[in-house]
Design a protein that fits this description.
Distance between the termini: 45 Å
CATH architecture of the largest domain: Alpha-Beta Complex
Largest sheet: 5 strands, antiparallel
Number of helices: 10
CATH superfamily of the largest domain: Aminoglycoside phosphotransferase (APH), C-terminal lobe
Number of domains: 2
Strand order of the largest sheet: 1-2-3-5-4
Helix content: 40-55%
Length: about 280
C-alpha cells in the first residue's frame, strides 16, 4: 500500500521544514525513492521503506525495530543508511532514510562476502542495546508451528543442536542487499529480517543464496573463508541451519527471473537439502 503524498510531505517537514517533495518513484516491493528539492537549490534523494502484511504479522513492531537498528548501527563500522524519520502511527508504519550510493553486483569474491558477514556478526549488539531484536529461537519455533509437516526433519534434529553465542544477524544476506561503488562496499541494506542468534543461522541461509548466485564452488569457498575467520565457532550444526535456510527460502519459484532459472534453482535446492540431510543423519 503506497504512502500518500501528503503524509510524506508531513514527514519531510519533520526532518527539514525547507524540504519540498518533487516526486516519488517506486523502487521495490517495499521501497519508494523520494526526490527532494532543498531551499538552497540542491536536489537530493531519500528512501521511504514500508513492510508487507506478512512481515508485520510476524513482527508488529518491524518498522520501529528496523529504524532503531539502523540508528544504532550508525555507531558501528558497517556502511548503513541513516534513518531520518519514523511514522509508527501510519498504517502501514514507514520510515524515511538516506539513500546510499552504489549498486548491486551480480558477482563478488567469496572471501570478501565472508568478511562482510563476519563484520556484521562481530558488531557488539549489547553495547548498541539491540536486545529488542527478535530471537532466532522464537522465529524457528514460529516457522515450525506454521508448517504441519517436517519434511526437512528440522524438528527431530533440534535436540542434538549445539548453539553458539548469539550475534547480530542480518537475516537476508545475499548479493542483492550489498551495494558497491568503485569495487568498494558502499552499503548493506534491507535489515527487516535482522535478529539475534547463532551466527550459523545467517551462514546457512546465505550459503543457499550464494549457491544460486555464484555456484557450488563459490559457495564452498565462501563457507570455508567465513569459518576460517571464526575459528571459535562450533560448526557442527551448520547442516541444521542449512535446512532452516532452505525452509525459509522454499518459495524461491516466486523470485526466480524465468522458468529456466527456476528449474536450475530447484535442482540446486534439492541437492543442497539432500547434502544437509546426509550430514544430519
Amino acid at each position: 500500500m503506497p504512502v500518500p503524498a501528503p503524509v510524506i510531505v508531513r514527514s519531510l517537514r519533520a526532518i527539514d521544514a525547507d524540504w519540498k517533495l518533487a516526486h516519488t518513484k517506486p523502487q521495490s516491493r517495499r521501497a519508494t525513492r523520494l526526490h527532494i528539492n532543498a531551499a538552497d537549490g540542491t536536489d537530493r534523494e531519500l528512501v521511504l521503506l514500508t513492510h508487507g502484511e506478512r512481515d508485520r504479522k510476524r513482527n508488529p513492531h518491524i518498522a520501529r525495530d528496523e529504524f532503531h537498528l539502523l540508528a544504532a548501527l550508525q555507531k558501528s563500522r558497517l556502511p548503513t543508511a541513516q534513518p531520518l524519520h519514523l511514522d509508527a502511527a501510519h498504517e502501514p508504519p514507514f520510515f524515511i532514510l538516506s539513500r546510499l550510493p552504489g549498486a548491486t553486483q551480480s558477482a563478488a569474491k567469496p572471501h570478501r562476502l565472508a568478511e562482510i558477514l563476519h563484520a556484521i556478526h562481530t558488531v557488539d549488539w549489547r553495547r548498541l542495546d539491540l536486545g529488542f531484536l527478535p530471537q532466532v529461537a522464537a522465529l524457528l519455533a514460529s516457522d515450525l508451528d506454521a508448517r504441519k509437516g517436517d519434511s526437512l526433519r528440522i524438528r527431530s534434529a533440534l535436540p542434538r543442536l549445539v548453539f553458539n553465542p548469539p550475534a547480530l544477524l542480518h537475516g537476508d544476506f545475499w548479493l542483492g542487499n550489498l551495494l558497491w561503488a568503485d569495487e568498494q562496499l558502499a552499503g548493506i541494506i534491507d535489515w527487516e529480517d535482522a535478529m539475534l542468534g547463532d551466527p550459523l543461522a545467517d551462514l546457512g541461509k546465505s550459503r543457499l543464496e550464494m549457491l544460486w548466485s555464484l555456484g557450488e564452488a563459490a559457495m564452498q569457498q565462501y563457507t570455508a573463508a567465513y569459518l576460517a575467520l571464526n575459528p571459535a565457532l562450533d560448526a557442527s550444526a551448520l547442516p541444521f541451519w542449512d535446512l532452516w535456510g532452505a525452509l525459509r527460502l522454499a518459495h524461491f519459484d516466486h523470485f526466480a527471473p524465468n522458468a529456466e532459472s527456476a528449474a536450475r534453482m530447484r535442482l540446486q535446492y534439492q541437492r543442497f537439502v539432500e547434502a544437509a540431510l546426509r550430514e544430519i543423519d
